[in-house]
């Protein structure tokens, strides 16, 4: 699917124009400027959402939905039809057109027809169906694109037609909308047709983990024992999510997941699988899980060390840290990889007990060459109520345009600490 151009002679505002151009950074900057004004012009965001959809910038449309755009206020003729969305192969476009205020526009009979259309694309294969429709025997141009905030999909162009390869994910969504329960085996098969960054993979893992059923758990255990590391990776993701979405650490499947992941971590040799296994332990408090993380403290793969750094120091009371975990975080805050230092600094911040060794290590990171690391250090010091955060926050200055949301959160902790300190001094 390809759409372009303005709706009938209408002069667009700056936000809609940036959305139509696909300029994500500019869209974020304009939204930040709009957030500083009162009252908020929600119609402006809705118009920008429509422009992003028309130009097939689905990641921007997804972000605008989260920032207040109301698709229900968009006229039907200003958006692609749902059939076009299914043909496009973009799960994000399909979600945008079936979200709040829009789903009731489509009768059940139409949704069933579109399910059959999505199944045709999925079973034939995106390239084969694209060739059938275009009649072209030329080489297919392929690229990878961001489809929504979290996932990417493949994009194929042939004979002047461009589609994305998310038809399997769209099929699963349509089945869900229609109340059709897709089998565990089929959802896993659809996921394994794609890689771990694809919507089909993430969607299947999330749906299955929410079922909380023995059938799904048995499938995860079977994947864990598979010789193919790609299949083991999906099994690890299922177990990780079983633990993550549990209502409590006492829930049956959470206990099963932590025990399995802990055992698994000792023998897994594939770095990607091991990374996911360790992330599955990152929100669980317990000595066995901590020992499993620490066993990989010096792993040669960056992803594994990042998982270790993210998991250490997450005790239930927010104050306790074992001596071994403390030493591990001190080591990882000195890691050569930027993301490892960031993860370690975040874990150290969560402890928030004023530990001098941890605060001194974070203070060293105030001179880190990477701004993101310095921001994390400021935030961590503020949570530990260490006054060194104040001057460091001033040196960083205000949040950068286009990054206000993430940077403000970290700087605000230092500003709040300074305000409370001055308030105490006056009383």
TrEMBL record:
Domain of life per record: Bacteria
InterPro entries xref list: Ankyrin_rpt-contain_sf, ARM-like, ARM-type_fold
Name of the protein in question: HEAT repeat domain-containing protein
Pfam families: HEAT_2 (PF13646)
């Amino acid at each position: 699917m390809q759409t372009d151009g303005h709706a009938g002679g209408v002069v667009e505002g700056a936000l809609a124009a940036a959305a139509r151009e696909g300029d994500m950074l500019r869209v974020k900057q304009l939204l930040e400027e709009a957030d500083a004004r009162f009252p908020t012009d929600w119609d402006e965001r809705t118009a920008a959402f429509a422009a992003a959809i028309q130009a097939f910038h689905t990641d921007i449309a997804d972000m605008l939905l989260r920032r207040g755009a109301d698709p229900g206020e968009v006229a039907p003729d200003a958006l692609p039809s749902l059939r076009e969305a299914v043909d496009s192969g973009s799960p994000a476009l399909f979600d945008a057109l079936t979200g709040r205020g829009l789903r009731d526009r489509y009768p059940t009979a139409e949704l069933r027809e579109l399910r059959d259309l999505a199944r045709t694309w999925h079973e034939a294969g995106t390239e084969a169906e694209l060739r059938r429709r275009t009649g072209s025997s030329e080489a297919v141009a392929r690229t990878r694109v961001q489809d929504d905030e979290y996932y990417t999909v493949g994009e194929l162009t042939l004979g002047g037609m461009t589609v994305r390869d998310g038809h399997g994910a769209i099929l699963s969504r349509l089945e869900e909308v229609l109340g059709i329960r897709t089998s565990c085996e089929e959802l896993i098969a659809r996921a394994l047709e794609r890689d771990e960054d694809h919507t089909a993979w993430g969607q299947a893992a999330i749906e299955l983990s929410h079922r909380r059923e023995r059938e799904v758990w048995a499938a995860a255990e079977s994947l864990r024992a598979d010789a193919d590391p790609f299949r083991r990776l999906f099994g690890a993701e299922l177990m990780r999510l079983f633990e993550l979405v549990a209502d409590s650490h006492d829930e049956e499947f959470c206990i099963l997941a932590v025990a399995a992941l802990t055992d698994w971590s000792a023998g897994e040799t594939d770095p990607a699988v091991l990374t996911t296994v360790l992330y599955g332990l990152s929100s669980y408090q317990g000595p066995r899980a901590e020992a499993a993380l620490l066993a990989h403290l010096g792993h040669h793969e960056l992803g594994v060390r990042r998982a270790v750094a993210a998991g250490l120091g997450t005790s239930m009371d927010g104050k306790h840290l074992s001596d071994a975990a403390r030493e591990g975080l001190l080591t990882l805050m000195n890691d050569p990889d930027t993301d490892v230092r960031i993860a370690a600094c975040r874990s150290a911040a969560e402890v928030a007990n004023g530990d001098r060794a941890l605060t001194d290590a974070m203070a060293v990171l105030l001179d880190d060459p990477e701004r993101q690391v310095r921001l994390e250090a400021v935030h961590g010091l503020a949570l530990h109520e260490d006054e060194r955060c104040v001057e460091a926050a001033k040196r960083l200055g205000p949040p950068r345009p286009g990054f206000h949301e993430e940077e403000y959160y970290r700087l605000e902790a230092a500003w709040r600490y300074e305000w409370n300190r001055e308030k105490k001094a006056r009383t």
